[in-house]
User: Which sequence fits this backbone?
């Protein structure tokens, strides 16, 4: 037995396989709480959690807020658009001011990459990464992996294909780090312009033709085309992208019968996945969202009650 001693959750890259397994085990326990008539436990009573979102979010922010409330924590939601940031205050000054209220956990989403390590120097609170630029989105990968483990019964030796906007995706990076810790192979598939230079150094295979790998995949994760982050044109047009990289009904017929088709959301239907497949694909995407709540409860509990023993 060892103790959970991680004060911050900044990325999947920093977590061991043993620590990931501990999160999954606790997630399974917390899923049961959501099925009760009274969906609350006193695990974090007296703790204060601040949601610091400097980027727009629906699923992640609401999921973290609900997870904190179900653990009986006090929750404060911060909105950058109505804060002193609009008056010229820096993010570090904002952190210092919030620190004066002695919060226990800060959940942060920000458009800059790999900056959260710096922010830990300005607060005694634990920081949980809810997505930082193009770097990582650890809790999204955790819920993806937990869902895959729940459906497949294992995470080892799977063939995972990640399709879409790899260049701008923090979800892709976190999933690569996570699945590879369980000796699963990962292939990224996208137009050459949407795969970062040197990405093969992450230990992934690179493919530019979805039809070459779609029938071999145990799990396919489709990523949203992040047009709001694209300062340049990375492919000729959406019609050509759909022809080469979208999950169409014709491509869906090539999938293994037990292949899991996942998407972190929100889905651009008829771009990443054909809307004619919505009825078939939507239940698993909603299961990811359901599991996300339990995963975030597990993370908040582990960080908020450090020194808990894990197997």
Assistant:
């Amino acid at each position: 037995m060892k103790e959970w001693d991680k004060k911050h959750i900044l990325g999947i890259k920093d977590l061991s396989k043993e620590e990931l397994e501990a999160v999954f085990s606790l997630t399974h326990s917390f899923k049961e709480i959501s099925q009760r008539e009274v969906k609350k436990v006193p695990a974090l009573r007296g703790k204060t959690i601040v949601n610091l979102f400097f980027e727009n979010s629906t699923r992640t922010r609401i999921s973290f807020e609900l997870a904190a409330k179900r653990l009986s924590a006090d929750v404060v939601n911060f909105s950058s658009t109505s804060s002193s940031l609009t008056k010229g205050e820096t993010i570090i000054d904002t952190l210092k001011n919030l620190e004066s209220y002695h919060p226990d956990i800060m959940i942060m989403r920000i458009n800059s990459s790999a900056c959260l390590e710096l922010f830990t120097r300005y607060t005694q609170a634990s920081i949980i990464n809810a997505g930082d630029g193009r770097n990582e989105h650890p809790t999204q990968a955790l819920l993806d992996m937990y869902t895959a483990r729940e459906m497949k019964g294992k995470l080892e030796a799977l063939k995972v294909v990640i399709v879409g906007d790899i260049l701008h995706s923090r979800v892709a990076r976190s999933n690569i780090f996570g699945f590879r810790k369980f000796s699963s192979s990962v292939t990224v598939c996208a137009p050459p312009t949407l795969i970062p230079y040197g990405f093969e150094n992450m230990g992934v295979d690179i493919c530019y033709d979805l039809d070459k790998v779609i029938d071999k995949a145990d799990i396919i994760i489709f990523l949203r085309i992040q047009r709001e982050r694209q300062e340049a044109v990375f492919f000729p047009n959406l019609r050509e992208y759909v022809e080469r990289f979208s999950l169409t009904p014709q491509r869906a017929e090539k999938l293994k019968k037990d292949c899991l088709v996942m998407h972190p959301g929100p889905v651009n239907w008829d771009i990443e996945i054909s809307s004619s497949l919505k009825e078939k694909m939507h239940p698993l995407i909603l299961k990811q969202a359901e599991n996300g709540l339990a995963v975030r409860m597990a993370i908040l509990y582990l960080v908020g009650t450090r020194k808990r023993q894990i197997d």
Summary: The first strand starts at residue 2 and ends at 3. The chain has a mean pLDDT of 91.
